[in-house]
Automatic annotation (TrEMBL), chains A, B:
InterPro entries: cNMP-bd_dom (IPR000595), cNMP-bd_dom_sf (IPR018490), RmlC-like_jellyroll (IPR014710)
Name of the protein in question: CRP-like cAMP-binding protein
Every Cyclic nucleotide-binding domain range: 21-114
Ranges that cross the membrane: none
Upper taxonomic lineage: Bacteria, Pseudomonadati, Bacteroidota, Cytophagia, Cytophagales
Biological source species: Dyadobacter jejuensis
Amino acid sequence: MADTLFQKIYSHPLMNPEDLEIIASLHQRVILSKNDFLLREGKTSNAYYLVEKGLIRFFVNDFNGQEITTQFICENEIANEVSSLFQHLPSIQNIQSVTDAVVWKIEFNDFQYLYHSMESIREWGREWMSGQLFQTQQRSIEMITHSASMRYLQLIEHRPQIVQQAPLKQIASYLGIADTSLSRIRKEMITN
Amino acid sequence: MADTLFQKIYSHPLMNPEDLEIIASLHQRVILSKNDFLLREGKTSNAYYLVEKGLIRFFVNDFNGQEITTQFICENEIANEVSSLFQHLPSIQNIQSVTDAVVWKIEFNDFQYLYHSMESIREWGREWMSGQLFQTQQRSIEMITHSASMRYLQLIEHRPQIVQQAPLKQIASYLGIADTSLSRIRKEMITN
DNA sequence: AAGGCCACTTTACCTATGTCAAGAAATGCT
DNA sequence: AGCATTTCTTGACATAGGTAAAGTGGCCTT
């Protein structure tokens, strides 16, 4: 069952079972309780995590001390604060479990070893990063072109786990609106 | 003068003059007139561009046919539609010169050759991508946490060339507001 | 069972930004 | 130079979403 996790996440045309086995052997299973932190603001990231079970979020604190959720990571996705991990800079983001969760950790040094010894993971890595960049850009564009209620509808449609598992306040800040506004949008969706 | 362009852009701890010379030799100088396209929506990108002179923008068409400027690329920066170039997918973005410009083009195949033969450019590439990801995330966060006039002030402060060289409508869509709103913000900034 | 806390909702009011339409200024074209 | 087109500004009005404060209900703790 963890095997299919690795297969799903590390899928790439150049990937083969031998490489995959080596990759998997460098991951370690970690059990998380709700609200546990995987990375705290100000610390430098030294690992990333594959999510087997549960929901993870990234958040920052804005200048009024409000928590802004910037990403949700669902099952079969990767929680990786790229700019801290690859540039060895203190993170401005926090990574925290929203629910109880099971994740697989791989340390930077082990990844770095793989990256230098396997073409498959290098190519996979570049593709993963470009996919992340694409998603982040899409999200920016949607913040501009769609209304808050449209954004909420899209979230329900495309990532229902988030709407089911995360508290309203986190979803609201992810959508870029106040929690009372999300509450109002929910109400209008029911009555109309 | 083009040499310092390559030095600035391809700077990385592992980079050395020999590598840099090989890299530079695979770029080709291209002269652009205002409004020329480097990539059109629906086409698959097969190159990226270093900007020596002038201003370049990325834009998408939203569902009402409005152009939304998603990025401005200034001098000594790179114009690269990553997800089209590296995943060979049709681009949803357009890349167009805002002013007359001089850029240096490198084709995907040549880059790919470098990427496989030089550790320096591989590491540089990963760092560049993670930098891009960071910037894009920062921009999303600012769209949520800052008001339109704050965003405009930040743009004036951090990237004045854009404010000087791009037309108001493009700047407004980049800031995520209507052009009339940006005009009003400008007025308020003068009188207050 | 009682108190306390948290997540969510609701209401009233406020403000930033959008929309539309008109005019002024700048730029480009022949 | 002169006309056309685009760019920018302005004003009146509309609306999505913000803020603050109070209310409801659930759940945990003792």
